[in-house]
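Quarterly update from the structural biology core.
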Amino acid sequence: MTHHEAHRASNWDEILSPDTAHTYETPMRKDAFALSDDQKVSLIAEKFTEIMEILGLDLTDDSLSGTPERVAKMYVHEAFSGLNPANFPDVKLFDNKYGYRQMLLEKNITVHSHCEHHFVPIIGKCHVAYIPNNKVVGLSKLNRIVRHFSKRPQVQERLTEQIAQALMEALQTKDVAVFIEADHMCVLTRGVEDHGSSTTTQSLHGAFAQGDERREFMDAIKSC
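Predicted structure, tokenized:
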């Protein structure tokens, strides 16, 4: 792990309180970053070649020959890029010069993740809200934080909590709310093959944990 990666990992550890760290952390080996991204791509391509050959596919076919490398690059650089804390977005805060103290809600943030049980997609929407203290953040950073934690093998419950914890740390406020509604391809396309269900999770903190702010947040996302 490079110094920069170690710094990012240290920052993430600080987000989590000692009694809850085991709940929110993505299970990772200590040597998770011993290999470079290029090394990981090369090794994954080799392993995926073996999987395709075991399945009986002909990798001399021009449609299939490049698939192992394409899958490996997708895993490392796209689908699971959020595993690397060095990829956490740089969140710059601005002074709340306007004295805004009401709920700020960013609705319908796209969630593209992967179920860690079957490595198939989780597709949905995330709604995040916060009440500023002395600082506000550029809106795109909210989307980028959601995207960062989505780009991992996930369970929706953990994803929801990781986003909430990171927002509280980045925004310097406990008044944070996160709500996710998603479709899980492991439910839609395998096993029970249920096309009518979706999964919702929420993580409400500070003023959003109860009372008027909670109702305001829930009412605001009902129309989504």
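DSSP finds eight helices and seven strands in the chain.
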